[in-house]
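Hello forum,

I keep getting stuck at the same step: I have a sequence, I want structure tokens, and every attempt I make locally crashes halfway through. Rather than fight my setup again tonight, could one of you with a working pipeline run this one for me? It's a single chain of 150 residues.
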Amino acid sequence: MATATMPTLTVADVTPTTDHMGRVYAVIPDDVARLLAAAALEGVGLNARGYFPQESVAHPADSWAAATVRTIFDALLASPVVTDDVHQWGLSQYRTWDGGTFHGFIVGESGWDANTRWWRDYDHTGDLRVRGNATIAPRSRRHLAGTCTF
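Reply #2:
Ran it on my machine without issues. Output:
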């Protein structure tokens, strides 16, 4: 799919929130969530065992996936939900080194119930859940700097 047809996520489109256990979620529009969820599964061996077979391909720094994850990171860091402890959610490196890993969840709006602060219809909204931990490689990683994996 050409980049021109991909939806553009803005900071205002991201709703940082927590579940009833205090874990951080980034709730994003469904159309963006579906595409990001698919990007997170690219290159993942769903039947493989071990750590690395579960990591997505490295999306280039100038890719739609990387730009979308950076927007999510920016929205999270602008939110009081995360700013109390950026280290806990893995985003402290992003401020300093332009890279980091979000130790929370990314989900589409239809897959999140804001009233109960929990998943909505979990068994039928798998296409709205971005699996893995969204990661932007820090600039110290040289040739990998800015790449995005999940």
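The longest strand covers residues 24-28. If your local run keeps crashing, start a new thread with the error log.
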